[in-house]
Each structure stands twice: as structure tokens, then as C-alpha cells.
Specification:
xylan alpha-1,2-glucuronosidase activity (chains A, B); globular; 39% helix; 694 residues; Chitobiase, domain 2; 16 strands; homodimer; six-stranded mixed sheet; GH (chains A, B); 3 domains; Glyco_hydro_67_C (chains A, B); alpha/beta; eight-stranded parallel β-barrel
């Protein structure tokens, strides 16, 4: 028997110490502190619930899973006098997703206006246990500040994910609707745990296939899985669907047949999925069809679809990511120019979805001028979780600080304090609809996100959408504790790396506001020398504009004057080359190489310094990571350790490629103490060329 | 303590009863029969080994894993008097991969000429334990009948797999060489356990990227992982690489610069990977570049590459899958016409890789006439494990009986008994090189193959390549026992379904030798009405040739006369419409709808009967499967149960589409007792059309 127990123990320890990352932040390994564990166990000994529906089932199931895992006890369901009471009741806060947690000496009560509120409350309780917080004298009242908190999956019908770095699509279309992969359920659990309540299943570059009857049956199966977790399903639609699927001659939004086709389609969708969320549309953008193909406008297109969806309370989420083919223009200004003019003319079930920055998810962008500009039209925040421009799945970039920077940026739309967060959560303009979305970084990879640390970005989206004023540091703290359940030193070490990671990545890839200098089309590695592409605004030169004088895109009134799209308060932060925060310098100014920054260095010297210090910081990340060896599970440790090696290799590549290339223009030496890159331009160019080989 | 043990037990039972399929046939769950377990445990109590290298490490590690899992004991490594002795020694059989297993009352001795032989012997021992066989008085001597036993991965550089239905490529190119995914090791273990000793990492439609210095470094990392398991790495190459990568003006195989480029490339490859296997080439086939682009021949191309590889003992595996654009011709005859003429003119390090049938991996094909035709050139068997035409990952098709049918087919090349197996294993023509390959069905899916039952096809390839005369039933028996470790009744039930599955699939999709009637291009579902495609031989009509008279492709002397490519003995089995086995009828004859088969039914009635009986057989599969509920782990049970539902839905689709379409030509009624399909042609056509929507 002793041997047997020893054997069992060895399995347990295997379970504990080799972690493939599948369980995400809902890890639920046994809490090591016995006293704490016992205290919690007492609190969760018995549970009662005053309602029964699909959501109550999954709520109790989650509670049981957490309790068994974290505490080693099976919660007992009782009729009364439970130590944990779950109940639906009318709260002071009428938000349908609100919850309260109150605790007395012998009882914790979690209540919600709806079963969904209770589910969120239970996840909050579990989080507090996972993060070793006290459950004494709780008086929590919480409700989401943003209504729609959503993931956008850029998943194609062939199973690939556009800009996905974590495997294939999780949706197994050829198995649906008959087979429900267990991953669908765990996906829903993870989302519910962070308050995500919507998911767009397919790519915004949308195949019309998804709204055929055949595929709607499959979508329904997913909606049925997600519903108990409070998650609504959305689809991206192809604007030309009436032609592609309906055989109509046109997709003109003003054509009666087209309107009718969409009405019928909406009816069909809602007959199958009564709580379907809505359609997301990328129209007249990067080759996608749209109303402008028929001489109509974005407004015409969006309103036509909104009319079709209105009887069902369905939403139209219309993306503002548009930019015309204009070699002389400034892509920065395109979305504002196209959408500002229609403010107030969109039907009430339309949300305009705006990427955080004016270009395309660069590692640092100033905010899109549309935030603060659309007073009568709800705008949604679109963040990108998948690291298209942030090092794919081999660079460790915690995006929390980036999101926080964006949300805290003051638009000055109604004077100082008009932050983006307040635009997005509807406070500023009293938007009736509010939304924040993340372009998902999930895929079929066992650990969901490829880089184990990228799970934090998914987690962050949910937490920030619930409360856009939460700090990225607080989120990192929660996530690390939940994910690693490690000791204090390791927790602090990991958090520290996370908090620095985005600035480090910026330094070795895009210092001082350099942007859009990645490998053309595939977006891998550095390629600042791209001067030709199918469109000028797909080159790097278009953005960095390096010449013998200097570098950067002049967006002041002497240049493209896109700065004018901001309210004065924000504009004035950027308009003066001498006072602008150096991180944004080259977004707005063509700065002479020898221009002196406030720290006394020239632009060139500062750029080079950042490239080199960025690389050194990665070495520091490696050292810090090495210091926690043995403190977290070995599989994750080795996984991250290996990825940091790749990150270091690629950081060197970025540094050398950038320095060698820009030096052609600056003609200035690499400042001491740094050594000039040993590699030639040709060697560095050949590295990215490999990835252009079809 | 008791509670704790109970809890631990609950974890164990979870481990045992929910199986995600990752462990494949190396499941190693505890053997339930205690007496048996103890007997085995005694035999494996102590182990000694007389050599130490990378292979010995993995051999001992596997032994430990198996012993701990199956028997619950940790084998103890001792210096002498071990119960299990592993040793390198010179065997009677000089084959470098041979092994012997001999057992006396107190000792089992596994010996090999090389450490690889010992590894194979250990896997044989484990298999015998997994299948509950006696280890008493063993006198086993085994060596592979085929030298190169290989998987071909059709994996692209973007991570997709051409015709893959189990997720993405397992090779994480952007993480390599720094990060070694644990799956690489488990892949190697699985292959070694069934004797697979080669792997082609990338698609035959080859990107030149794989032979850049950058990618060769990544390939080396994989080769290093696989080497201890006796697996050599191969790459598919793009024939135009000297132009694409080398910047040469031509890829003409007779051009001195081109020759030199390939010599240099071969040197570069072997400097990194001294035991690199060789290059696989798909040339002048389906748009791939090749020597004929420069007015040269397959012989010229293959020999040029073979010269470059010869100094390193590298192989060139040249695929015979070619067919010219000839609307009047018969694609059936293309490979023979192109390659037979060069027999004897290929350099000795060349293997011609031939698909089992003359067309393209249809569910039943007569053998390629090249088997038995190439007397002086080694030909390799290419089977397809991925179920491109066999129902993807939702239809359960055990391919063993198909492979067996092919291998047992008599070519009559040297009179009766000249089976394909004897061609392939080199007996018949004394080939100095022998090879059998399977186009892999593996991917990043957790269970490797999508359909849990498709793992059996991978297993079969290895076992049949080791011994092409083993029966598919014996293999099924091994695989089911190893994979499910269930009771006798369940084992027999699963085997029975497996053994019938391919004929069932044939019946509801391609009865009587119908072929190539699947969805155009995507190859999903039925689309026998395809009459137009980029090439006539990509239509369905080209193959079934249905008209008001009859159906089938006349390949007798009255038709294309492709039958003449077979030796007389085989030809005469197919040439007479009255004596041909009905399963091959429409491969060789345009049979009148009213032609009577030997069972008295007309061709039409027999076709319809098979479509309907095929569907009913799926229902029977479902019933049989349902009968083992609770006898195998629930996750696999439910997974297969759901896939069988999809299979049934699609079987009905195939049946109805085929019957409704062909009835347009036959104008004959659906024979009783079968009911005419309720769906219209338009309804059925729209189903496949969905999958043509981009």
C-alpha cells in the first residue's frame, strides 16, 4: 500500500510539475499553504442555489472543479444553511451582469440579477481564492463598465487563422454540428471567467460560406455550447453575400432585392439562434467588397444591414479600418475622414469598431482620432491580442501596459479628463452601446496561445473590458498568481518581466515612434528597406521617410496635418518637436538625425541606444527567467526559456537590420559604447528574404 | 490519509477513463489482470545493457515508461544477472535493424546488431506485453523486409498541411531550432515503435524555403531529435531551387551551373546533417517545375540530383505521379508511359516512388502498372494515410485491408506469385533499395489524426512496411489491444468494425469501381456531376463516363487499352466484363446499365443496392459502437460516436447524390426495397456547392 501511495504521489507530482498550459489561468492546482486551504475549504464546504438553468449547472460545475482542485474538497450541495449561497435576486445595480459578494463569519453570499451575474460572481470568488485573498467581510459590488466584451477570431473556413500564431482555428467545421470538441467548453469557461460575453467566430475578411444554412447549423451548435456561459455568437459577413450566395446581380445596399435578401438571412439566423449577437463587417477595406463598390457609402451599407437585424435586436459592428489608395495621402487620416462625416447618421443598432491606433496595431501608436470625434455614434475599441506586429509567438510582450496607455490617453473631447476609457465605456458621450474587442490570439495549440505568456493578453482583454480603469499591473498580478501558483519571488519576477516587456520590444524594433517597418506582407522580422509593394502604404519607406536629413512622418501642419484630427489638448502634446514625448516623436515629426532630444542625445544616437539597450534587456529577461528555474513547472519554464532564446536572436536581427539600414541615411557612427553590427546589409536582408520564398 | 488516497484514486481513474488520444498505441495504462501484471513485472524487474549511446538512453526510457505504466513497477538497471538483458551482438541475420528476443525461465535477452535493432526489440517486447502475450520460451528473430519505411508529410511552410485533416503541421518552424516541442519526441517514439525509420518533413509541392541555410538549421534540430530513434530526415525539394534561391537563370539539369548548385547544396545539407536521408521530388506534375520545363526528361532530372547526393550516400526519391494534359488520353496510363522507358537508366541511388494505384488514392484502385514493370529500377510503394478521398477525419476507414489487397495483388511479372509485396520488398527483381511510404495523416490535433480510429492507419503503415505479408487483421488486433486495453468483447467489436469499414465506405461512395467523383478541388463530399474543371482529368465525368448506355471507363483494347500495361495474368483478370471482380468493373469497362452481374442483378441495381446497403452498414457500425459504451474511455467513445453521426449524414448524402445523378443517365428505377431519395438534384448539388464558396 505504501508503494502504491508513493506511486500515486509520483503521478500527482507529475500533474503538478509538468504543465502543458491547457488549463490557462484556471489552473486549480492544490493550494500549498495548508492553513489557507483549510480556511477556504470551510467557506466552500456547502453550497446552496436558488435557481436552476443551464448557467447554474456550469456555475456549480466550475465551483466543484475549483474546489476539488484548489482545496481538495468536494463542495456539497445543500438546501439551506450553506456556507456559500448563490442566488438570483434584484440588486441595487440593475446591470444584468452585475453581481455582489458579501460575507459574514459563517457565510458567503453571491447574488446577481441574473444567473449570469451569479456565474461572474463565482468566478470572482474563485479568483480571490486563487490569488490568496481574504474572504472575510467581503462587500463587493461589481458590474461591467462596457456592455459587449468580445473576441474577434480571424478564422478562415479552411481552418487557418489570419495572423494566427497558435495553431489552427479551434472551430472544427467539418465535425460540427455533430461533434462538440471539449475545447469549446474550456474556451467558454475561460472567457466567462474574465467576463467576455461575445465571440466573432470568423475572419473579418469573411467567407460568405459562414452564413449558408449548412454553416449556420454548425454555428448554432457552438452558440448552444457558449450560451450557458453567457457568451453570444457573432459572425463576420461578406458584403457581397447576396451575389455570392443569393445569385443576385448586385449587392448594392439600396437595391430592394438586396435588402430583402439580408432581411431573410437575418430571419434565418435568428430562427436558429434567437440570441445571436450580430454581424461584423469589414467593407471596402483591403480588397473586401462593400457599399462603395456600388457608389454608396459606409453609412448606406451599415444602415441597410442594421435594418435587417433590428427586428431581432441584432447588432451591426462596422469596422472603421479603411484606407484609400492615395500615394500622396496619409493613411493615418483615412478612417476619420471616412467616418466622422457620418456621425449621427447611423442607425442605433450600429457600432463603429475602431482599432486603437490610426494605422494597424503597431507596438506603439497614438490613438485613433475617431476616439473623441464620434459624439453620436458608439465606437468600439479594437485591440489586437494576436501579436501580428509584436513578435508573433516567440516574443514575450505583455500588452496590458499598451492597452492601459491607450485607454488613459486623454482625447480632450470634452476638456481634460476625456480619456479614451471614458469614450469607450460610454460615459463621455452617453453611448447607448459600448464595446471593447480583442482580435484573438487563441488557436488549436495545446496551450491556446503558442507563447505561454501570451495567455495574459487574452486575460487582460477580458479584465479591461469589464473595467477599463483597472491597471495593467493589477491584472498582471492576478494572472501570474492564478497561472503559476508559485512563490512570491517568482511571482514578482514574472510580473516585472511582463511589465517591462512591451517597452523592451519597442526599443529593439520600433524606437521613438518608428512604425510599420516589419517584413512586407508576412510581417515577420525587420524589413525597413521595403520601398515597393502593391500599395505605397504597404511599404516601410512610406512611414519612416528616412532621408539624409532625418527620419519620421511629418503629420504637423507643415506635413500631412493629420494631427488636426485630434482635439487641441491632445494635438498640442504632439505638435512640438521639442516637447513631444520621445516615444511618439517619429509618428508626427520628420526629425533631423542630429536633432537633440531632451536627454541631450541626438535622434540617431537615441535610436541606436534603444536598439542596443533593447537587446540587452532581452538578455536581462533571460537572466531573470533563469532565476525562477525549479519554482514553476518545468515544461512551461523550458518552453519560455527556449522562446527567449529565439527572441534574443530576433532582437539582434532587428537591431542590426535597423541600425545598418538607417545608417545609410544618417551617415552617423554607432555611438560608443556600442559596437557596430558585424553583419552586412546583404546578410541581414537575406534573412528576411528567406521568409518571402513561397 | 484514507481520504487522500481516495482522492488520488479519483485522479488515477480520471487518467484512465478520459483519454484524449495523445498517447496513441503506446497508451501504457495499468494492466488490469493482476496475475498477468505480476508475471510481466517479474520479467522486467531488472535490466542490463551492454552499450551506451543516444539510442540506449531512449530505449531505457521507453522501457521505464512502459513498465511504470503497464505494470506499476520501475525497472531497475543492474550490471549483471538482469531479468531483461539488452545487448548489441552480431546476429545471424546481418540486417542492421534486425533483433532477436529469446527467453528462458528467468531471463529475456533482446539483442541486435545495432542499438537500433535493440530498440526495435524492446518495442516488440512492450507490444507483446500490451497485447497480453506470453513471454515464455520466446525465440523471435525479426528484421524488416523493406529498408526504408517512411512517412511523407505534405506540410507547407505556412503551417498548413495539404490534404491534412488533423490540424496544422507539427513542425513549428518559427520556434525552431531553439525550441523543441515535446510532441517531436512522442512522434519519434511512435514511429520507432512500429519501425518507421524515415520522415519527409515537407510537402511534395515543395517550397524552396526548406533548403535555405535558415531552414536547414531548423531541420537539423529535428534530425537531432529523431536520430536516437533511428529516424532519418528527408526533404522534398523544388526543382527550380537554383533559380529561386540561387539566382541562376535556369534550373536545366544539364546546365553545369545548376549541377554545381545542387552539389553545393547537398554538401551544405550533409555538413549539417551527416545522416540526412535524401530529397523527394515531385517534378513536372500538377504545375510543379521539373526537367521537362527545359526540354529534358525525368531521367535527366533525377540523375543530376542523384549525382549531387551520391558522395553522401543520399537518396533521390523521384515521384512517378505525373500525367500530361491530354483530353483524349487516359490518365491511368501516364506514369507507365513516362517511366517504363527509362527503366535501367536511373542512377543507383534513385528510387521511383509510385502511388498504389494509377490515378490518385481512390478508395479502391487496381495497382499501378509500374509495379512489375520496372525490373531494373527500385520502385517504392506510396500509400496515403491521410484520408483525402476516404472521408477525411469524419469517416472511419481502416486502410489495412486496402493496403493488404494492393500488396497481395499478383503482377504476374515473373509468373504467378509475383505479388506487389514481392516487388516492393525487392525479392522479385532484386532491388538494391526498397521502400514503402505513407502520406502522413498526422497533425497538431491533440490525438494526432483527428479521427481517433485513423491512428490505426499510421500504425498499419509501419507494421506493413516492416513485413508486407502481415495481415491487416493481425495488425488490427494488435492496434486495438494496445490502444484500448479493453475487454475481449469490445476488442472484437472494434476489430470487426475496422475490418468492414473500408468496404462500407466504398459501397456508399464508389461502388463497383466508380472513381474520382468527389467534390472538385476540395475533394469533400460527392460531386459526380463535375463536367468542367481546369483540366478534363480533374472532372468526374472523365472517369465515370456515364451515358444513357452505361457507366465506366473502357480501358480494354476497345477503349484506351491501358489494360495492356499489365502483364497478361493480371490483364486477363480484368479484361472480360463477365468475369471481372465486380469491385473493379467500372475501372475497366463501360458497362451497360442493364448488364447482368454474376449475382443476377443489373449494374444499375447493384450500384444502387451498394449505395443503400453502405448507408445501412454505417447504421450498423453505430449500433456496434454503442454496444461498447462504458467499456472504453468516455472521451474516445463520445468522439467516435459523434463522428459516426457525421459519417452517417454524409453517407446518406453520397448515396442520394449518386443515385439521383446517375439515374439521369440510367433512367431506371430505384429497385425495391429501397426508397427513392427524397432530395432533389438541386438540393444535393447545393450541399457541395457550399464548400465551393471561398
Amino acid at each position: 500500500m505504501r508503494l502504491f501511495v508513493l506511486f500515486l504521489l509520483s503521478i500527482i507530482s507529475l500533474n503538478t510539475f509538468a504543465d502543458d498550459g491547457y488549463r490557462l489561468w484556471l489552473k486549480y492546482d492544490r493550494i500549498q499553504n495548508e492553513a489557507l486551504r483549510k480556511t477556504y475549504a470551510q467557506k466552500l464546504a456547502t453550497v446552496s442555489i436558488n435557481f436552476s438553468d443551464e448557467t447554474s449547472k456550469v456555475t456549480l460545475s466550475e465551483l466543484e472543479k475549483a474546489s476539488l482542485g484548489l482545496l481538495g474538497v468536494k463542495t456539497k450541495l445543500v438546501g439551506s444553511n450553506a456556507s456559500l449561497v448563490l442566488k438570483k435576486e434584484i440588486l441595487t445595480d440593475k446591470n444584468s451582469e452585475a453581481f455582489e459578494i458579501k460575507s459574514t463569519k459563517n457565510q458567503i453570499v453571491i447574488s446577481g440579477n441574473t444567473s449570469k451575474g451569479v456565474l461572474y460572481g463565482v468566478f470572482e470568488l474563485i479568483r480571490r481564492i486563487q490569488t490568496s485573498e481574504s474572504l472575510e467581510n467581503l462587500k463587493i459590488a461589481s458590474s461591467p463598465k462596457i456592455q459587449l466584451r468580445m473576441l474577434n477570431h480571424w478564422d478562415n473556413n479552411n481552418g487557418t487563422i489570419e495572423r494566427g500564431y497558435a495553431g489552427m482555428s479551434m472551430w472544427k467545421w467539418y465535425e460540427l454540428p455533430e461533434r462538440i470538441d471539449t475545447r469549446y467548453i474550456d474556451y467558454a469557461r475561460a472567457n466567462a471567467s474574465i467576463g467576455i460575453n461575445g465571440t466573432v467566430l470568423n475572419n473579418v475578411n469573411a467567407s460568405a460560406r459562414f452564413i449558408t444554412a449548412e454553416y449556420l447549423g454548425k454555428v448554432k451548435a457552438l452558440a448552444d455550447v457558449f450560451r450557458p456561459y453567457g457568451i453570444k455568437v457573432f459572425l463576420s459577413v461578406n458584403f457581397a453575400s447576396p451575389k455570392i450566395l443569393g445569385g443576385l446581380k448586385t449587392a448594392d445596399p439600396l437595391d430592394p432585392e438586396v435588402k430583402q435578401w439580408w432581411k431573410n438571412k437575418a430571419d434565418e439566423v435568428y430562427k436558429l439562434i434567437p440570441d445571436f449577437g450580430g454581424f461584423v463587417v469589414k467593407a471596402n477595406s483591403e480588397g473586401e467588397p462593400g457599399p462603395m463598390d456600388f457608389g454608396r457609402t459606409h453609412k448606406d451599407g451599415a444602415n441597410m444591414l442594421a435594418e435587417a437585424m433590428a427586428p431581432h435586436n441584432g447588432l451591426i459592428i462596422w469596422r472603421a479600418f479603411v484606407y484609400n489608395f492615395d500615394p500622396k495621402g496619409d493613411r493615418f487620416a483615412a478612417a476619420y475622414n471616412e467616418f466622422k462625416k457620418f456621425d449621427g447618421e447611423f442607425l442605433p443598432n450600429i457600432i463603429i469598431q475602431v482599432k486603437n491606433g490610426p494605422i494597424d496595431f503597431q507596438v506603439r501608436e497614438p490613438i485613433s482620432p475617431l476616439f473623441g470625434a464620434m459624439e453620436k455614434t458608439p465606437v468600439s475599441m479594437e485591440f489586437q491580442l494576436t501579436q501580428e506586429y509584436l513578435g508573433w509567438a516567440t516574443h514575450w510582450v505583455y500588452e496590458g501596459p499598451m492597452f492601459e496607455e491607450v485607454l488613459k490617453t486623454d482625447t480632450f473631447a470634452k476638456g481634460a479628463g476625456s480619456t479614451v476609457a471614458k469614450v469607450i465605456d460610454g460615459q463621455l458621450f452617453k453611448y447607448p452601446l459600448t464595446s471593447m474587442i480583442g482580435v484573438a490570439n487563441t488557436g488549436s495549440d495545446r496551450n491556446w496561445t503558442g507563447h505561454p505568456m501570451a495567455q495574459a493578453n487574452w486575460y487582460t482583454l477580458g479584465r479591461m473590458a469589464w473595467n477599463p480603469e483597472i491597471t495593467s499591473e493589477k491584472i498582471a498580478d492576478e494572472w501570474v498568481k492564478m497561472t503559476f501558483q508559485s512563490d512570491k519571488k517568482s511571482t514578482e519576477t514574472i510580473k516585472k518581466i511582463m511589465m517591462e516587456s512591451r517597452e523592451i520590444y519597442t526599443n529593439y524594433t520600433n524606437p521613438l515612434g518608428v512604425h510599420h517597418v516589419m517584413g512586407e506582407s508576412h510581417h515577420f522580422g525587420p524589413e525597413p528597406w521595403v520601398e515597393k509593394a502593391p500599395r505605397p502604404d504597404w511599404t516601410a519607406l512610406y512611414y519612416h521617410r528616412a532621408d539624409t536629413v532625418g527620419i519620421g512622418f511629418d503629420r504637423t501642419e507643415k506635413g500631412s496635418n493629420s494631427l488636426a484630427q485630434y482635439h487641441l489638448g491632445l494635438r498640442s502634446k504632439y505638435s512640438d518637436i521639442n516637447t513631444i514625448q520621445p516615444e511618439f516623436l517619429l509618428w508626427f515629426h520628420h526629425a533631423p538625425w542630429r536633432h537633440k532630444l531632451q536627454n541631450g542625445r541626438t535622434v540617431w544616437d537615441e535610436m541606436v541606444t534603444r536598439y542596443y539597450e533593447g537587446v540587452k534587456s532581452v538578455e536581462n529577461m533571460q537572466r531573470q527567467w533563469a532565476s525562477i528555474k525549479g519554482k514553476i513547472d518545468s515544461e512551461t519554464f523550458e518552453n519560455v526559456e527556449a522562446r527567449l532564446k529565439t527572441q534574443h536572436k530576433e532582437a539582434l536581427w532587428w537591431r542590426d537590420a535597423s541600425v545598418v539600414y538607417f545608417q545609410k541615411y544618417s551617415k552617423m557612427p554607432v555611438p560608443s559604447p556600442y559596437q557596430k553590427p558585424a553583419r552586412t546589409f546583404e546578410e541581414l536582408k537575406s534573412l528576411v528574404d528567406v521568409y518571402h520564398v513561397k
